[in-house]
Records
---
Amino acid sequence: MQELPYIILSFVLALAISLYAVPVVIRIVHSLKLFDKPNERSAAVCPVPTLGGIAIFLSFLFASSIGLSGNEMPGFIYIIIAVTLMFFVGLKDDILDISPYKKITAQLITAFIIIFMAKIRFTNLHGFLGIGDIGMVFSVLLTAFVIIVLINAFNLMDGIDGLAAGLSILAATVFGSWFFISGHTDYAILSVSLVGAIAGFFYYNVYGKANKIFMGDTGSLVLGTIMAVIVIKFNELNIDQSQPFAIASAPAVSFGILIYPLADTIRVFIIRLLQSKSPFEADKNHLHHRLLTLGFSHKSATYTIIAINTLFILPVFALHHIGIVGLMAFIVTVGGILFMVPAYFIQKRHLIEKNDPQQQLLIPGSTYEFLKNRRSALQMAQKRPASKTVKLQTFLQKLNLW
């Protein structure tokens, strides 16, 4: 418990700096007229200052550095270098815009820094499919993939007020609590520094009126990078099951803690690829857009998603002993059903069109038309009754609620 003061200091310092820095950033953004303007895929209804990630980054940087001054943390300097790289990439994107391919290149460099310089990577699959320790090549590929997925997941879910910030606070609190009780003070400090930095921003993002601000890519890329480091370390520290408070099925538990950002990103990427679009092309296919379509406000949609994600975490920890396959089956089944619920009610109330390019409820339009035309051609060739085409289309519409 002698490390507790460092943890408390890190949180309080990050929160205080963030609460002070956000209004300063807002004044600068106003003077430079750097606003996030509403567009066809934005949930914003009026221009709002962006670059709130500057306050998050600075708060996290100072608080974690001071908090860790009395605690040795191998690779910390390289973690900061990786986070700083993504900060400047996000800053440039918020001000000038950069292509998705340049973003991916920067993310690969970030992954290289984390893997080879900070020496943070996956080394074990925790018995998944009977596999324990893994070789260097597979380790590097897997770690780089997870880092890139998590960075983009947090970047993509930054669509409505408080969502990316709120889910980051939830995830960092859960991971940080485990780090603390299991005796890994360094990563507990890293986690609570992130919580404090985001909490100050969250206040202005959700409840700000004169001082409202968005985090932008400057913030979301930073959040994704730090969260990737935390997730990898959580898995690595749970390899030895003889340690106190060890969590079995750590990979599945990690997925459960981050169920919304990961599942929503995977689902949206699949929809875009089926539409022959770039997976990084913006649209309104995210779950939070579905909730807005159902009449939720930004605040109510955010708190609904956070509440569901929170409730999801509880059984994931309770069932961590059933094995990775069993736990992932539970997560995919329950998560899939939950993701279908908003689409079901939108369909029932006929709130959007089937082939709306911005909110694809059913099978993506191009794929749906392809299946329909292909089926029709086969029917004409084989002289099958047209009624079966109707039945097939109806079945596909009812089946695909994602």
Note: Residues 362-399 form one domain.
---
Amino acid sequence: MSTMDQTLVTRIVEAALLAANQPLTVVQLHGLFPLDEPAPEGSVETALADLQTACAERGVELVELASGWRFQVKADVHPWVARLWTERQTKYTRATLETLALIAYRQPITRGEIEQVRGVAVNSAIIKALEEREWIRVVGHRDVPGKPELLATTKAFLDYFGLKRLDELPPLSELKDIGELEPQLPFAPAVPAGVDMGSETADADVGSESTSDQETPESDQAGTEVDADPTSATSEADADDTVADIAPDQDDNDGDDAEEASSEQNQ
């Protein structure tokens, strides 16, 4: 059995990392080599170190994340390479980023504890969106009445932010504002406590309230018109009474004329 040279091992590891659509662990890289011709001991680790060194002057870098090793675009050339991605960038509200940061720095943490820190209710849609993104997951339940779920981050979260371990997160004292997690994102206002809805829905409700306020004078005017109607009805009723008062006089006159005519005929 011939021994595979280091150059070939490095080329195989490089090709595998470039072809993979997700990070690869050292175990997975060792699995690329058949049992009858395994990679020499330590050759995969040496290949990774050599590839990292070779990327020093290139536009990509080889980094180790929570899920394994991967090539990624360097930050200094990212603005140009990002033009290749035509899909619309996902934008997260300030409430979403604050919730994610609390889970990351204080995990495991319950939803109620997040609400205590932020001072506002946590929208259920925020938790659902973070779970669908596979950035957070339920890791247990707090041993208190109600057994609330304990939330924590995942390896996918670390991979997305280019981290290998949670201790690589920047200290909270260095975060002047939660927006530094994604400074280019426009933040929406936080949802007040007790309101379980998205920011857009809340804005729509505010708009509805403003519209209602604007319609109030019209309602008041309509009420004034209704109040004017009884006056008109009263005037009409008074007119009817006046006609009724006059009518009997006419009837009496007609009766007198008839009596005079009857007297003349008798004469």
Note: The radius of gyration is 41 Å.
---
Amino acid sequence: MIVRQSASIHVCVLRHVSEMVKHTGARHLVNAINADFLPETPTAIPGDRHLKLDMNDIVKAQPDLVAPSTRHVAKLLDFVQSWDKQAPILIHCYAGLSRSTAAAFIALCALNSRTPEETIARALRRSSDTAVPNRLFVAVADKALRREGRMIAALDSMGESRRAYECTPFGVEALQEPNRSGTACKAA
């Protein structure tokens, strides 16, 4: 088992959660998935370090589906701000493409308030050529973090993603606040 004693954020698909908890040494887990697919908490993750965000992968309200909301963003921001950064966070959704990459982007923006959003988005793209962050989730977070549309604009700077049914698991190191040039952004 590889245990990373760093502030890194990893993303994977639902079917790789147990494997990735072991591989990364993650001790915090975020599920950004509709409740029908919510997995059990892995034994390596204490219950109070498992955030369950019940939402569907939609970008506008639809009957009988749960859209990303201010409640989801508030829970994610509280969870990330309480992270001790002694071991990685693992974030997943069903395919690791949209909700989970949005949650990772939101977390990185929250942790690095002085780092340009575009720098963070490009770090995400370098780490995953399949990342397609859920725009509604990001838009709600943009308002909560008072980013004035910069988070959504940063998604556009990522360029096209490679089409895929699911992501290859990836990680991004937490960014270093003082560096506004973007050189601190790197893959985990």
Note: Residues 178-186 have pLDDT under 50 and may be disordered.
---
Amino acid sequence: MRLLTTLTLTFASGLALAQPAQNAEYQAQARALIAPFAQELLATVKQAMAQGGPQNAVMACQALAPSIAQKHSRQPWTIGRTALKVRNPNNRPDAWEREVLERFAREAAAGKPVAGLSHGEVVDGEYRYMQAIATGEPCLACHGKNIDKDLLALLDQRYPGDQARGFALGELRGAFTLRRPLGDGSGE
């Protein structure tokens, strides 16, 4: 009996030590996926702005952002964006994402730099990770406090119920959100 107890405790402690190491690996993988995704999104917006101003950027973002997210979602990872104030209703946060975004908002209000906010954990058999997005200069034309009235009309037409307005430089705009099944990702 003592041997069985010792083996059980040894096995359980090995699992407990393995999870933080696995989570650190997942976190590194998630972070590595975010940078190229963010770069392509920003490049797409900047190119559209250069070719036709903010109105062109709105149309390009609406048409291309979902396919860019799909392109950067590499098995077993799924990547996307969410926010407390969304423009596209398809990007609404689920309960876990909302909780993390609200934590980010509290930390930002307490003076923590938005760019350094991230969180990852195991939730319902998946590793989930979020990294905050600070409102950058290119974002302000469409998400800032002084949006051109013609652009506002286009936003209202393309995104009825748009909430993603009124941001200032550096404020929490939203977050990248990633998820993957635990293990090798094969679902087994």
Note: The chain has a mean pLDDT of 87.
